[in-house]
């Protein structure tokens, strides 16, 4: 399951990189990754607009301003690729631990 998740994140990172490449280079601009918040706004703007006041009102203004807002400015494709690497590493680690089990091979 972890390996499948890692492949999904790698595929999403590749697709997002392709979209970013086409969107920037085809217009003659230098290549740049789109931000998480920019992509979220393009996919479903009303949920992003409701998320900010909900976090500020019910959780903390500090959480929105100091944590979530900077995260929304991170480039999406590299974040997806890092998530893919994390899940791939977890899948390998789980498989190695299973192979080292004293009950393996019985």
Short characterization:
The chain has 106 residues and is mainly α. It has helices at residues 2-25, 36-43, 45-58, 61-72, 76-99. Helix 1 runs antiparallel to helix 5 and helix 3 runs antiparallel to helix 4 (61-72).
Notes on the structure:
Residues 1-22 form the signal peptide. The chain crosses the membrane at residues 72-91. Keywords: Membrane, Signal, Transmembrane, Transmembrane helix. This protein has 106 residues and is an all-alpha fold. The chain folds into 2 domains: 1-34 and 76-106; 35-74, no CATH class. Helices cover 77% and strands 0% of the residues. It is built from 5 helices and no strands. The chain is flat, with a radius of gyration of 19 Å. The two termini are 24 Å apart. The mean pLDDT is 90.
Oligomer: single chain
Q: Whole-number average pLDDT?
A: 90
Count of helices?
5
Structural class: mainly alpha
Which range does the strand content fall in?
under 5%
Percent range of helical residues = over 70%
Transmembrane segments: 72-91
Signal peptide: 1-22
Keywords: Membrane, Signal, Transmembrane, Transmembrane helix
What is the topology?
Layout: H1 2-25, H2 36-43, H3 45-58, H4 61-72, H5 76-99
Transmembrane segments: 72-91
Keywords: Membrane, Signal, Transmembrane, Transmembrane helix
Signal peptide: 1-22
């Amino acid at each position: 399951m972890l390996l499948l998740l890692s492949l999904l994140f790698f595929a999403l990172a590749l697709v997002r990189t392709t979209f970013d490449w086409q969107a920037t280079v085809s217009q003659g601009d230098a290549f740049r990754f789109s931000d998480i918040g920019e992509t979220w706004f393009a996919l479903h703007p009303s949920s992003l607009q409701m998320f900010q006041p909900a976090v500020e009102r019910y959780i903390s203004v500090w959480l929105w301003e100091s944590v979530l807002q900077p995260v929304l400015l991170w480039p999406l494709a590299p974040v997806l690729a890092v998530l893919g690497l994390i899940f791939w590493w977890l899948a390998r680690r789980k498989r190695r631990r299973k192979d080292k089990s004293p009950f393996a091979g019985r």
